[in-house]
Amino acid sequence: MRSLVGRGPSARLLCRSCLQQQRQFASSVAPPKPPSSGLAALPSRQLLSVSGPEATKFLQGITTANITNEEGLPRTDAFYSGFLNATGRVVHDLFIYPFHQSKQGLADKEDGYLIEADASEMARFAKLIKRYKLRAKVTVRNVAQDEAAVWQAWDDASQLDITPDQSRLVLKDPRAPGLGYRIIQLNQKSPEVDLDTSTQDAYTIRRYLQGVPEGQDEILREQALPLESNMEMMNGIDFHKGCYVGQELTIRTKHRGVVRKRILPCMIYSNDKAAPQSLMYDPECTSPESLTADMIPAETSIGRFGKKGRSAGKWLKGVGNIGLGLCRLEIMTDVVLPGEQAAATYKPGNEFVLEWGEEDNKNDVKVKAFVPEWLREGLGTPS
């Protein structure tokens, strides 16, 4: 008997013994709890440079954030943004960092912007940017890792104050409270910050606990909608700027529609255990015989435990006992959508399950979604 692991062209079938070995391996390498402070390199993110006299105008027409300030001048601060396709689906989630060649010493001959995106999709992203470029007076080039690298710094015990200088660009992460600082180090050295070196896994776990998606494994390319991905709550969309690619559907959804699904942090637990009351990462929660979140195929449907009916959402990605899911708010949470109080189907005692695999060899695990406080406040829903 075999089970299907993965999705799309990369999906593969595993026999029962192989699946058991995979479970044991996955459980044994579950990352430890993230430290309360740390400095982590993020090789999953890479940079693209867009420079030239029309760089600001060019980016203004293809990104969801405003590239100019209230005076109409190019912004000098870094910010979070997104790049959509013509139907309003997310193609890339981005951080954008303005730079001045005379100060930062980059290889570019003119001022411009460093754009941070998913490293695994950087070649596709660069090709797409160049296609939109047309006759705009901009230069687009890939930035090598030894020229500039992406880092994240955090400290829960004290207020970090990391300032930019000639060797680095800095952004206080605007997506959710407490995520820390994004640092673009403009050389091969580690950032000079008084924090112990940590890992990307630690940063990822912290993101999941806050419900913050990143990259195309979590914000599915050309499938995800920006509002369902919480991009407006994470300060990535300016609803007052001029036209940009994908703006029409985004504006219409904001002003006329109801966002029924949102990416939320989720916690998996065994079928024989009670539902958790709070979201917590526990690397020791699994035994060699149990499933871990990284083994659940992406886009696995979330169903009601013991009941049939419409899907309550779909799984995106996880590690250990936590992850992210695209969840129907009115089914999986107590969030009441505007004007739909009577139609709400959420009941506190309901439980939900992820099931996958062949009919004669199914795997299943329970899952519970949580609404982070920052998102709850943005939705105007009391806790």
From TrEMBL:
Q: Which organism is it from?
A: Pochonia chlamydosporia 170
Its subcellular locations are:
Mitochondrion matrix
Biological process according to GO: iron-sulfur cluster assembly
Q: What is this protein called?
A: Iron-sulfur cluster assembly factor IBA57 homolog, mitochondrial
| UniProt keyword annotation of Cell cycle present | no
Domain (CAF17 C-terminal): residue spans on this chain: 260-376
Give the chief site where it resides: mitochondrion
Q: Which family does it belong to?
A: Belongs to the GcvT family. CAF17/IBA57 subfamily.
GO molecular function annotations of the record: transferase activity
Query: Which keywords accompany this UniProt record?
Result: Mitochondrion, Transferase, Transit peptide
GO CC annotations, alphabetized: mitochondrial matrix
Membrane-traversing stretches: none
Among Pfam families, the record links this protein to:
Beta-barrel_CAF17_C
Q: From which domain of life does this come?
A: Eukaryota
